[in-house]
Amino acid sequence: MKIFFVTGNEAKFREASLVLGEFGIELAMDRSHRKIEIQSDNLEDIVNNALATICTGDVSEYFVVEDDGLFIDKLNGFPGPYSSYVYRTIGLTGILRLMSGINDRTAYFKSVVGLCGPQIPAKLFIGVRYGVIATEPRGSEGFGYDPIFIPSGFNKTFGELGLEIKNKLSHRAMAFRTLGNWLLGGR
Fold first, then answer.
1. Separation CA 20–CA 27 (nearest Å)
2. Alpha carbon distances (Å) from 79 to 24, 90, 120
3. Phi/psi of residue 128, each to 5°?
4. Is a pLDDT exceeding 80 seen at residue 55?
5. Cα-Cα-Cα-Cα dihedral of 178, 137, 89, 14, to 10°?
């Protein structure tokens, strides 16, 4: 089975490809469609809207989109669905500055993966990974917020753990694994 991932993010594509490869599912990057992201505080709404613009009418291929966010408890869930914009504008140092003096550093990553295709209405798969925000960036693996997110049960950031371990426990890996299981019979 082949699925087209509508994304321009090579790192997300690589992570998702490795996970779906465990199920014998081939993932191809689709640059012919554009993922339209509405402004919303809800990842599910963002993904459903993106799917609605990609899977119009009779589609003959399977398409997947993904959106995710870092939700920091003491910042009332900020940056949440705006994580990409916040990363581009204030970066890791800006987030760490906002967290300065805050002892409760609990946070979670949430990923929403949406699938549509022939005779499949939009279907969502969700992965959540809890953890804490580090006091400084650590590690050079991964991308985005990986150097400051320490998953629960670990003392290293995603940036220190590396792709192999991250892909066993990340929010995105969880969501894509749920998709893989569903496609292989969990429907």
1. 7
2. 35, 11, 32
3. -130, 135
4. yes
5. -30
Counting beta carbons within 10 angstroms of the beta carbon of residue 164, is it exposed (0 to 12), middle (13 to 18) or buried (19 or more)? exposed
Catalytic residue numbers? 67
Per-residue pLDDT band for 89 (boundaries 50, 70, 90) equals very high
pLDDT at residue 104 tops 80: yes
Whole-angstrom distance, CA of residue 108 vs CA of residue 74: 11
CA distances for 45 relative to 89, 119, 140, angstroms? 24, 21, 32
**Global pTM value:** 0.93
Structure token pair of residue 27: 């993932």
| Rounded distance between C-alpha atoms, residue 113 and residue 108, angstroms | 16
Tokens of 80: 């949440």
DSSP code of 175? H
Residue for token pair 């979670």: 108
Say if residue 12 is exposed, middle or buried (CB neighbours under 10 Å; 0-12, 13-18, 19+).
buried
The CATH class of 2-186 is: alpha beta
Element (H, E) at 186: none
* Pair 95, 120: CB distance under 8 Å: no
Cα gap 92→107, rounded to integer Å: 14
**Domains of the chain by residue range:** 2-186
